[in-house]
Design a protein that fits this description.
mainly alpha; 0% strand; 286 residues; single chain
C-alpha cells in the first residue's frame, strides 16, 4: 500500500502544473455543481432546496480551509483566496459586480442582434422553467444560480487560477482558465453561439478575483448574472426578445444603444479594475 501511494505521489509531482491546475479546479467545481441535480432528483422541493443550502455551506467551509485536515488548511485557504476586503475595496467591488452583470446582459442583446436568437436551442433542457408553478421555478432558478456561482468560482477562479497566477502571472492564468471554462461549457446546447461571450465573462470573473484576491465579488456577480439569465433568457420571458438581426433590419437605434452600453460598461469596469489594483498595492505596502 505504501509503495502504491508513493508511486501516485511521484506521478502527481511529475505532472505539469497546467494539467494539475485543470484537474484540481475542474474536480472541485464539478463536485459542487453536480450535487444539485443529484439532490433535486432524489428529494422533492422545497426540501431539496434546504438540503442543498446545507451541502453548499459544508462545501464552502471545507474548501475555504475552515474545516478538514490541518495539514492542508493553509493550502485550501490560499486557493480559496480567503482575504478580508476593506470597506473601500467592497464599495469598488460592488460597482464592478454591477458592471459585470450589465456587460453580460447587454452583450447578449448585441450578440442576438448580430445573429438570429436561437430560441429552441437556447431553451433546450430549460423549457421546464416556464412549465412549473412560479414558486418552484424561482427556487430552481435561485439554486442553479447559487450552485454555479459558488462552485465554478471556487473551482476555476480559485483552485485552478491561483496556482497559475503565481507561476505564469495573471494574464496567462486568466486567459488559460477562460479557455478551459469555455471548453467545459461546450456540451451545453446554448454555448455554441456564445463562445466568445463565455470567454469574456470568464476573463471578467478572473480579473476581479485576481485584483481583489477574493472570490466573493465574482461569486456575487456570477449568481446575479445567472438569475438574470434563467429568469429571462431560459424561461417563457424569452419570447419578449423579438428583435431581428441587423442583417435584416439594418443598424438601428436599438443596436447602437446596446453596443454603446457594452463599450461604456467595459471602459467603466477597466477604470474600477485600475482603482481596485491600486488599493491592493496600497494594502501590500501597509
Amino acid at each position: 500500500m505504501e509503495e502504491k501511494v508513493s508511486l501516485l505521489d511521484k506521478l502527481w509531482s511529475g505532472t505539469p502544473l497546467l494539467i494539475k491546475a485543470v484537474i484540481v479546479g475542474f474536480l472541485i467545481s464539478t463536485i459542487g455543481v453536480m450535487s444539485w441535480p443529484f439532490v433535486a432528483v432524489l428529494v422533492p422541493l422545497p426540501w431539496s432546496f434546504i438540503l442543498m443550502i446545507i451541502i453548499l455551506w459544508a462545501y464552502v467551509k471545507y474548501f475555504s480551509g475552515s474545516w478538514g485536515p490541518e495539514n492542508s488548511q493553509a493550502w485550501r485557504k490560499y486557493n480559496f483566496r480567503s482575504t478580508q476586503l476593506s470597506q473601500k475595496t467592497w464599495w469598488l467591488s460592488a460597482i464592478g459586480i454591477f458592471l459585470i452583470v450589465l456587460i453580460e446582459q447587454s452583450g447578449l442583446i448585441v450578440t442576438f442582434r448580430l445573429m438570429e436568437f436561437p430560441a429552441e436551442r437556447f431553451l433546450e433542457g430549460y423549457s421546464y422553467l416556464g412549465q412549473v408553478p412560479p414558486w418552484m421555478g424561482w427556487l430552481v432558478i435561485i439554486m442553479i444560480s447559487v450552485v454555479a456561482g459558488i462552485c465554478e468560482e471556487v473551482g476555476f477562479r480559485g483552485y485552478m487560477q491561483v496556482s497559475l497566477e503565481k507561476r505564469y502571472g495573471p494574464v496567462v492564468a486568466i486567459s488559460f482558465v477562460s479557455i478551459i471554462f469555455v471548453l467545459v461549457h461546450l456540451h451545453q446546447a446554448w454555448s455554441g453561439p456564445l463562445i466568445v461571450h463565455i470567454f469574456i465573462m470568464s476573463v471578467l470573473f478572473g480579473s476581479i478575483a485576481y485584483v481583489t484576491n477574493s472570490l466573493l465579488p465574482g461569486i456575487i456577480a456570477h449568481v446575479v448574472m445567472d438569475i438574470c439569465n434563467f429568469s429571462f433568457w431560459w424561461s417563457e420571458l424569452e419570447h419578449q426578445f423579438d428583435k431581428k438581426p441587423i442583417q435584416v433590419t439594418g443598424v438601428d437605434a436599438h443596436f447602437v444603444f446596446w453596443l454603446g452600453s457594452v463599450v461604456l460598461n467595459i471602459l467603466l469596469y477597466l477604470y474600477v479594475f485600475k482603482n481596485l489594483k491600486r488599493l491592493g498595492l496600497l494594502s501590500l505596502k501597509d
